Structure of Hemoglobin subunit alpha-D-like:
Amino acid sequence: MLSKKERALIKEIWEKLTPEAERIGSEALLRMFVSYPGSKTYFSHLDISPGSAHLLSHGKKIVLAIAEGAQDISQLMVTLAPLQTLHAYQLRIDPSNFKLFSHCMLVTLAAYMGDEFTPIAHAAMDKYLSAFAAVLAEKYR
């Protein structure tokens, strides 16, 4: 699905963005909560207001997981196995939320990266985030 060049580009982008994990992740989550209010259901026990510790912490966890998966995309199933189980069996997150979050992450990356988020980077990231969401949803089948 992803060429060698696209894989290298995705890895490079996430390595560059990892220091901003809290900011990028929390912005993407907040964007999802505002755009798709039903997604807040799974976070009712947390303070998910802008800038809250819970939002920053969970946003960082998500970005770090995405960045970890980008290190070796061919091993995405193995890398995400613990998260698959957590989200499917313990948290019971509706898998459609993974796609919604992927879209919100793309918008956040475009806003954050500006001109560096070229059409090639956008297309590659869209493919990667779609694969990431699909792998997370795999345990639901």
Remarks:
- DSSP finds six helices and no strands in the chain.
- The two ends are 21 Å apart (CA to CA).
